[in-house]
Amino acid sequence: MQTAALELQNVVRTFGPVVAVDHVSLSVAQGEFVTLLGPSGSGKTSTLRLIGGFEELNSGAIRIGGQRIDHLPPYQRDTATIFQSGALFPHKTVAENVAYGLRMRKVPKDEITRRVAEALDVVRLKGFEQRYPAQLSGGQKQRVALARSLAVRPAILLFDEPLSALDLSLRLQLRAEIKRLHDELKFSAVYVTHDQGEAMAMSSRVAVMNAGRIEQIGPPETVFHAPSSEFVYTFIGESCCLPLRVTPNSIEDRSGEAIALTLSERPAEGECRIYVRPSRLRLTGDVASLPNRLTARIHFIEFLGDVYRYHMKAGTLELAADTSDPVGRAVGDMIGIGWRNEDMRLFR
Q: Of 48, 121, 221, 347, whose CB neighbour count within 10 A is largest?
């Protein structure tokens, strides 16, 4: 059995009374790209910093290649970190920045020259060797930071929200670039982000974190389509929430107003929440034949480029549905909404 590239066992990190990382266990296989995804304060950055040695753990163990490393300072761990800022030396050229980690490791000069050339070629910056950071765009700086990390060939590559400061088009380009490089080079990585698109697009597995714990970990498709909890469902992707109160005689919204809602299976009495993603709601065509239906009034309409988003209200319930084309209804009109059983989740 192959030794894991990285292993965390019951890792805990506290800041006074605040538990930032709460008994986190995680194993990253050789060549695997694992993303820690979660909102601010969920513990994802603290977990990454524990791996890199920038924070001290209170208890637990961290191993790289089977060897315990949590007692070692950052420079003695076989890791390399790519930060949000890139953290380049402004007074050094691109080639000197990429070579820095190799020089610190006392790699022979000829080997440094070869590895710098290879790394810059991989990130498509050949010919930029003598430029300084001030002469580079934001995306080019991040590619230099990536080349610097790749050149030292660490056992684990750590990404600390490296794309969050870039504009959307550049983020998408670099996201694809990192995915391409991982597919080609098969490096082992832990990536931290709050951007669901990044996590879904790049990862072998996604670990969704909340309140210092991993709520669910699995392939992106599994986390998206089969969330293990209400938090995971609502954090991953967009969703409409229908808070309901089921009585013996009716289904009501939380204000007590009866809702003309048809469900294929009537929920048990009491309060519940039904979730459906906007992309799964249907407004036209076979709505009448769908097992779950609701009539609502169009509140307003947004054009989002690829889709039209219809915002609707039924009592106090608010829904949003995406369609590729206009449905021929205006603000204020009543409209039927339908969805399949497999497209909704019920939580209590």
A: 48
Sort strands 156-160 and 79-82 into parallel, antiparallel or unpaired: parallel
Rg (CA), the chain: 25
CA–CA separation, 192 and 187 (whole Å): 16
Distance, CA of 102 to CA of 113 (rounded, Å):
10
Amino acid identity of residue 134, one-letter, is: A
Contact 194, 39 (CB under 8 A): yes
Q: What is the pLDDT of residues 102-160, one digit of tens each?
A: 998 888 999 999 999 988 988 888 999 999 999 998 888 888 988 898 888 899 999 99
The per-residue pLDDT for 65 is 94
- Which of 182, 183, 187, 232 lies closest to 206, judged by CA? 232
Segment (H or E) for 19:
strand 18-28
CA pair distance 72, 53, nearest whole angstrom: 7
H helices of the chain, in order, are 44-52, 94-104, 109-122, 138-151, 168-185, 196-202, 220-225, 230-235
Residue type, 211: A
Determine contact, residues 223/231, Cβ cutoff 8 Å.
no
The answer to which of 68-77, 118-127, 211-220, 270-279 has the lowest mean pLDDT is: 118-127
As beta bridge partners, residue 283 has none
Strands 33-37 and 205-210 turn out to be parallel
Is the pLDDT at 166 greater than 90, yes or no?
Answer: no
Measure Cα distances from 2 to 66, 158, 182, 251, 269 in Å.
10, 21, 19, 54, 51
